[in-house]
Design a protein that fits this description.
Among the domains are: 187 residues, FAD/NAD(P)-binding domain (3-Layer(bba) Sandwich); 108 residues, Guanine Nucleotide Dissociation Inhibitor, domain 1 (Orthogonal Bundle). The protein contains 15 helices and 19 strands. β1, α1 and β2 form a beta-alpha-beta unit. It binds flavin-adenine dinucleotide. The site of flavin-adenine dinucleotide (FAD) has 37 residues, from α1, β14 and α15.
């Protein structure tokens, strides 16, 4: 009989792991507490509008290709990808924005126009970013994070100094234009920490941005989830939704023996959890938890977010599919997220309008708008605060882009700290896991294999390699390889 494994959660990491394990002959069942699959990448549909609830930037297409290739497939077997042109737009003031093109030549031109001589520096910077990207993909991110030794080879040693400098220092060494600095520091925000707290090595995100480009799966990121579910199903994975795992049961030798799901006990030999790591540990007996509350409290978590999904009854002007509003002081906002947690005085925010390039996401003549304000995890969350901030950003949006918008809202739904906790059992309501700081990189992250409970494994954005969809795919692969190795 095939070895049985139950996977908690149906986010990208769990789905990826389920495919690898089913391919290896395991009898795999995914248990998801929500009524739909996809975790933070679920979908929301209303009145002919379609929104991705979470991720919207499809970066690092090579990682998705690698994933599907492991099963003899291609992304195009499941969804159609469009390269966005421009990749995105950044607002710095009223009617003042820069667009980031989908090709390097135009990006160099844009830099040179903004700051004379900067294109030469950008070229050197991107050469290093590309070399780091290649090293990260080849030598680092697919490693299980068990020991520092797994990271050591001649290439990685030659780059060690970059772990002791920061992205902020590296970017500001030669580039002086505040606008260009903000554009170059933006990609590492996906890793969950401030550029001043992110090792310079992670500038590989700039190569992902400028070198590999920004893509959009037609129909939205949820198409990728649907593709993975279809692949998993074809490999024999079973899915149960509305299946809330309440307890991980262990026997006398601290080995997994079963799960309590919706009040019922089911027997299982192996458990892999893609739910937030902190939450999973609360499902086991206290004496078997590996990390204390103090440990989690000291960690740098990625921000939480206040999100709005808005149906507009007209088309919106002067913005792009992805638009960033960096017209306020990033350092002040970052301090209010990481150092002195409070609701931001003048928040930076991000908006997307997928219906500008993808007709499937809104009825004709209308626009689907997604707005995101990064917030400190664990912060107070009330309806009044949400409403207050909606008006704050709408007023700014209208002024910066010279148009009236509030009168065109058909509906809006918000999602914030309390929803992250409620929907995903997220620690302090974090939106995308634990940040990639120096002390939270590779073997310094929470471990994939439990050291206290036999046959219990973890995957997802709190483990290696870190936050984001491509890392979640990689994490699922790493976890499944470890399980296969240990349960031969
Ligand atoms: C607003 C937002 C925007 C983002 N933008 C981007 C982006 O543009 N690009 C990008 O690459 N990444 C982005 N990310 C990050 C990316 O979405 C995540 O890193 C990734 O989806 C995490 O996948 P995961 O498998 O680790 O976890 P999750 O998707 O969180 O999956 C965990 C699953 O476990 C389930 N679960 C929890 N507890 C239980 C339980 N007790 N029983 C059963 N099930 C349980 C949850 O319901 C959930 O389905 C964004 C995230 C958010 C929230």
């Amino acid at each position: 009989m095939n070895k049985q494994i139950h996977i908690i959660g149906s986010g990208f990491s769990s789905l990826a792991a389920s495919c690898y394990l089913a391919q290896a002959g395991y009898d795999v069942t995914i248990l998801e507490k929500n009524d739909t699959l996809g975790g933070r990448a679920r979908q929301y549909k209303k009145d002919g509008f379609t929104f991705d609830l979470g991720p919207s930037w499809y970066w690092m297409p090579d990682v998705f290709e690698k994933f599907f290739a492991d099963f003899g497939k291609k992304p195009s077997d499941y969804y159609k990808l469009d390269k966005l042109s421009p990749g995105y737009e950044v607002y710095f003031g009223k009617n003042s924005s820069l667009t980031v093109s989908d090709n390097l030549e135009d990006i160099f031109k844009m830099f040179e126009e903004e700051e004379k001589g900067s294109a030469k520096h950008l070229k050197t910077f991107l050469d290093s970013a590309k070399a780091n990207y290649d090293t990260a993909i080849k030598d680092l991110v697919y490693k299980p994070g068990i020991s520092p030794l797994e990271l050591v080879n001649t290439t990685t040693i030659s780059r060690v100094s970059q772990f002791f400098s920061t992205v902020r220092k590296q970017v500001r060494k030669n580039i002086k234009s505040n606008k260009l600095i903000q554009i170059l520091e933006f990609p590492v925000l996906f890793l969950g920490a401030k550029p001043s707290n992110t090792p310079a090595f992670y500038n590989f995100m700039n190569y992902a941005d400028f070198g590999l480009g920004t893509w959009h799966p037609r129909g939205g990121m949820y198409k990728v989830i649907e593709g993975m579910v279809s692949l998993a199903t074809s490999l024999g994975v079973k899915f149960e939704v509305n299946a809330n795992v309440e307890k991980i049961l262990t026997d006398n030798s601290n080995c997994v023996s079963g799960l309590q799901v919706n009040g019922k006990t089911i027997a299982t030999e192996l458990v892999l959890s893609g739910a937030d790591y902190h939450h999973t540990e609360t499902l086991i007996d206290k004496n078997l938890r590996q990390y204390s509350e103090k440990y989690w409290d000291k960690k740098t978590f990625a921000p939480s977010s206040l999100l709005f999904y808005v149906g507009f009854d007209k088309k919106i002007k002067n913005v792009s599919h992805h638009t960033l509003f960096f017209d306020t002081d990033f350092d002040v906002h970052a301090e209010e997220i990481y150092d002195n947690p409070k609701w931001p005085t003048a928040p930076l925010f991000y908006a997307n309008f997928t219906s500008m390039t993808d007709k499937t996401s809104a009825p004709e003549g209308k626009e689907a708008g997604f707005f995101l304000i990064p917030l400190a995890p664990g912060i107070e969350d009330t309806e009044e605060l949400r409403e207050q901030y909606f008006h704050k950003i709408m007023d700014r949006f209208e002024k910066l882009t010279s148009q009236e918008l509030k009168g065109s809202v058909i509906f809006k739904r918000s999602f914030c700290v309390n929803d992250f906790k409620e929907a995903y059992n997220s620690y302090k309501g974090n939106a995308y896991g634990m940040a990639n700081t120096l002390l939270q990189t590779a073997f310094l992250r929470p471990k994939i294999k439990s050291s206290t409970v036999q046959n219990l494994y973890f995957t997802g954005q709190l483990t290696v390699p870190g936050p984001g969809v491509p890392p979640a795919l990689i994490s699922g692969k790493i976890a499944s390889e470890l399980i296969k190795k240990n349960s031969k």
